[in-house]
Design goal:
Largest sheet: 2 strands, antiparallel
Strand content: under 5%
Distance between the termini: 26 Å
Number of helices: 8
Radius of gyration: 13 Å
């Protein structure tokens, strides 16, 4: 599946929403000193797979999810962030990406808001 104008628009929305909070000063949170909204920008390759459960998960997406999966609190905060919501990410689908990537060391059973990582 090629890069479509819909994906370009989604990436642009992610950039605009995340950069709107760049000048806020915050302490350490779920993702350290970087806000989950800013971290959500790194999830752009996951956008199609986070909106459609039948979409193929890209290798770039799996690489990012593997990185976030080392800190389940951060992964959940990113998937449930305002940036993800505004970009049309569906948490009930996005939560399945670690399993769809076949990540052996994913945090199975971790509660992520109203969702549980499969």
């Amino acid at each position: 599946m090629g890069f479509t104008s819909k994906h370009l628009l989604l990436a642009l929305v992610l950039v605009l929403v995340a950069t709107s909070g760049l000048y806020q000063v915050k302490g350490a949170g779920e993702c350290g000193k970087v806000s989950p909204d800013q971290m959500a920008l790194k999830m752009t390759p996951c956008a199609p797979a986070a909106q459609n459960p039948k979409a193929k998960v890209s290798p770039q997406c799996c690489t990012q999810v593997q990185t976030f999966g080392k800190n389940p609190r951060c992964l959940c905060a990113v998937l449930l962030s305002d940036t993800a919501k505004k970009a049309g990410i569906k948490p009930e689908i996005a939560i399945t990406i670690p399993k769809r990537c076949n990540l052996a060391k994913r945090p199975i059973g971790y509660k992520c808001g109203a969702y549980t990582l499969p």
